[in-house]
Specification:
Helix content: 10-25%
CATH superfamily of one domain: Cupredoxins -  blue copper proteins
CATH topology of one domain: Immunoglobulin-like
Number of helices: 10
Strand content: 25-35%
CATH architecture of one domain: Sandwich
Shape: globular
Structural class: alpha+beta
């Protein structure tokens, strides 16, 4: 908690003209003010993130700040740094340029469709995952390349599939300049320990067993969380119930938003001030606007289709709808319980996930869409093609 005796500071606005003032750290009168300015600078200049890796009051585990009990300092966490305070989302106002603009141009970056199919379950009851956090350029359309922060070099990160009661052994290694972390919504675990941030070259490992079935978000939880999710650090873990659901063609759709800054060398940074405005330039299913209109999802007449829909946000809801169809079953909680039937549209909140089912009795092209059309027409739309 902040020291209430300390005077409140005005929000920091950082642009290129402000850099000399921000660099003059010796002029900062309090430790809290120093850290706030340092956090802003680490987002503006690649490479400073590692130097400021604590992303919180301690410079190092068990360092002088932790020993001093300075006002506003989080307690040290055994085995690593504390999870940072996401309230920085609203107290920092950062310039349009993120820290991930690559030195090479974007013209050579290829486009790749994100495969929406749900992966098979693991053979055993232990799922071992080792993700790396990397900053990479990603082509999201013919003419747009974004400077993304990623898990495993893509946004979204890999689709993970397990069962209720499986053991998930997870390790995150950070290869990026900024500190990063992992927050699994499917886990019940101490977040200050498991979801803590790690600096470049460091790793964090934790283990959990999902208690409930459903479609769950995972994302970077490092402050400002808005920036990390908005820069592409999210994905889905699908937890199947212990007793299998009826056979179906299963697909995962993860809605996400893109807030574009002005292109640098053919690559668009992702703009934090736009994220704060909550007015995205594009809204996507699986990281690329309109990708499933260009390359639709195909099934056959008579197939049961199961959409696992996760909304990474970071902000807007997803009013999920399939034009020309109705959902015979929507699971409000852990499948197979909590089901409702005969549903036209249902909203998936940012940070949430749900399961939607329909039987494809009629051939044709059926658009699936975020029916909040101000967002659907920004790219959250695709085609389910039912072949005879």
């Amino acid at each position: 908690m902040p020291n209430r005796d300390e005077p409140l500071e005005a929000p920091i606005v950082l642009d290129s003209s402000a850099l000399p003032e921000v660099i003059a750290f010796e002029a900062v009168s309090t430790r809290r003010a120093f850290l706030r300015r340092a956090s802003v600078l680490s987002l503006a200049i690649p490479g400073l993130g590692a130097a400021l890796a604590a992303c919180g009051p301690e410079e190092k585990q068990g360092g002088a700040a932790a020993a001093s009990g300075a006002a506003g300092a989080a307690p040290p966490i055994a085995g690593g740094r504390p999870n940072p305070d996401s309230k920085l989302d609203s107290s920092l106002h950062i310039s349009a340029r993120s820290a991930t603009v690559p030195s090479a141009g974007g013209a050579s970056i290829p486009y790749k469709r994100f495969d929406p199919r749900l992966p098979a379950l693991p053979v055993g009851r232990t799922l071992r995952l080792h993700f790396t956090a990397r900053a990479v350029p990603i082509r999201v359309s013919d003419d747009i390349v974004v400077a993304a922060w990623t898990f495993e070099g893509d946004t979204p990160g890999p689709i993970v599939h397990c069962r209720v009661g499986d053991t998930v052994e997870f390790t995150l290694t950070n290869e990026a300049e900024m500190p990063h972390s992992m927050d699994f919504h499917a886990a019940q675990i101490d977040p200050k320990v498991a979801f803590r941030s790690v600096a470049k070259g460091e790793s964090v490992t934790f283990t959990y067993k999902p208690k409930y079935a459903g479609a769950f978000l995972y994302h970077c939880g490092t402050a400002p969380v808005l920036m990390h999710i908005g820069s592409g650090m999210y994905g889905a873990i699908i937890v199947s119930p212990a007793e299998p659901l009826p056979p179906a063609k299963e697909f995962v759709l993860i809605e996400g938003e893109l807030y574009l800054g002005a292109a640098v060398n053919g690559v668009h940074p992702l703009d934090y001030n736009k994220m704060l405005s909550t007015l995205p330039d594009m809204v996507t299913f699986n990281g690329r606007p309109d990708q499933y209109t260009r390359e639709p999802i195909h099934v056959k007449v008579g197939d049961r289709v199961r959409f696992w829909v996760v909304n990474a946000g970071p902000t807007v809801p997803c009013s999920f709808h399939v034009v020309g169809e109705q959902f015979d079953t929507v699971y409000l909680g852990a499948p197979p319980g909590n089901s409702i039937h005969g549903v036209q549209t249902f909203s998936v909140a940012a940070g949430g996930g749900m399961c939607f089912e329909l039987v494809c009795n009629v051939p044709g092209e059926f658009p699936f869409v975020n029916h909040s059309f101000g967002h659907g027409q920004k790219g959250a739309i695709g085609y389910l093609v039912v072949d005879a």
